[in-house]
């Protein structure tokens, strides 16, 4: 089982602040890196994906960077809003699909 | 509505029993993925099907099996259920690496 690690575990920011989270993953057998937003009692919602060949798709106000050689990705949220409060999961696709444990974001109005 | 349909939403059953969870992917998506989220663990990948064929296997127990039918819906069969199988089971379908999740089936084994 591969480790996909996310930090911080939780984060509280003020409305309007920009924030970012980190995901580290194995750099071998990389195919794609995904970011998801997961609200309580809902299903994960795809925010960003980047594949090995550089194809990228994203949704909303987020942006992300990816370093496949060193195995990390940053997710950026600019101008956080209270509705951005959720758990943000990253997932690594190699020969399987591995999720990190998430970063819980709370945006304080 | 994400377009990925899972039924039932909730299921309560006794230890030793067998249940079937059902997933219909988004129209046009050929892949179906199954995931398990237990209380003490994050999301774990179980198995992937693509156009009726098993494509990848994750941490799926031997007591669990899945299949994808010609109409592309998929079923996850869980047998000889144990208390520890209580979890939220998600399915997802994908197009070009963009995954869409269903709302999940919450299984409670008592």
Q: How would you describe what is shown here?
A:
The complex is a heterodimer of chains A (109) and B (110). Chain A is mainly β and 109 residues long. Chain A has strands spanning 5-7, 10-14, 19-24, 32-38, 45-51, 56-58, 62-67, 72-77, 86-93, 97-99, 103-108. The N and C termini of chain A lie far apart (39 Å). Helix content of chain B is 0%, strand content 55%. Classes of the chains: A mainly beta (109), B mainly beta (110). The A-B interface holds A 1, 32, 34, 36, 42-46, 49, 51, 55, 57, 89, 91, 93, 95-102 and B 2, 33, 35, 42-45, 48, 56-59, 90, 92, 96-104.
Individual helix count of chain B: 0
Oligomer status = heterodimer
**How much of the sequence of chain B is in beta strands?**
over 45%
Q: Classify the secondary structure makeup of chain B into a structural class.
A: mainly beta
Shape of chain A: globular
Which key features would you list for this structure?
heterodimer; A: 109 residues; mainly beta; 7-stranded mixed β-sheet; 4-stranded antiparallel β-sheet; 11 strands; 0% helix; globular; B: 110 residues
Strand and helix map with partners:
The complex is a heterodimer of chains A (109) and B (110).
Chain A: E1 5-7, E2 10-14, E3 19-24, E4 32-38, E5 45-51, E6 56-58, E7 62-67, E8 72-77, E9 86-93, E10 97-99, E11 103-108
Parallel strand pairs in A: 2-11
Antiparallel strand pairs in A: 1-3, 3-8, 4-5, 4-9, 5-6, 7-8, 9-10, 9-11
Chain B: E1 5-7, E2 10-13, E3 19-24, E4 31-37, E5 43-50, E6 53-57, E7 64-68, E8 74-78, E9 87-95, E10 98-101, E11 105-109
Parallel strand pairs in B: 2-11
Antiparallel strand pairs in B: 1-3, 3-8, 4-5, 4-9, 5-6, 7-8, 9-10, 9-11
């Amino acid at each position: 089982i591969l480790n996909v690690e996310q930090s911080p575990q939780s984060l509280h920011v003020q409305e309007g602040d920009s924030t970012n989270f980190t995901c580290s993953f194995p750099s071998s057998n990389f195919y794609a890196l995904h970011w998801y937003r997961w609200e309580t009692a809902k299903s994960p919602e795809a925010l960003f994906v980047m594949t090995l060949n550089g194809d990228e798709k994203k949704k909303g106000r987020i942006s992300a960077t990816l370093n496949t050689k060193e195995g990390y990705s940053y997710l950026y949220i600019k101008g956080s809003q209270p509705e951005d409060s959720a758990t943000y999961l990253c997932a690594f696709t190699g020969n399987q699909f591995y999720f990190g444990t998430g970063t819980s974001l709370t945006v304080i109005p | 509505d994400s377009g990925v349909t899972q039924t039932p939403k909730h299921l309560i059953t006794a230890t030793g029993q067998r249940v079937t969870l059902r997933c219909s992917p988004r129209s046009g998506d050929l892949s179906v993925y199954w995931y398990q989220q237990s209380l003490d663990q994050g999301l774990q990948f179980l198995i992937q099907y693509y156009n009726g064929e098993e494509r990848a296997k994750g941490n799926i127990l031997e007591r669990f099996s899945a299949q994808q039918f010609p109409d592309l819906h998929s079923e996850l069969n869980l047998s000889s259920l144990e208390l520890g199988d209580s979890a939220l089971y998600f399915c997802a379908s994908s197009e070009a690496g963009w995954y869409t999740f269903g709302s999940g089936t919450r299984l409670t084994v008592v």
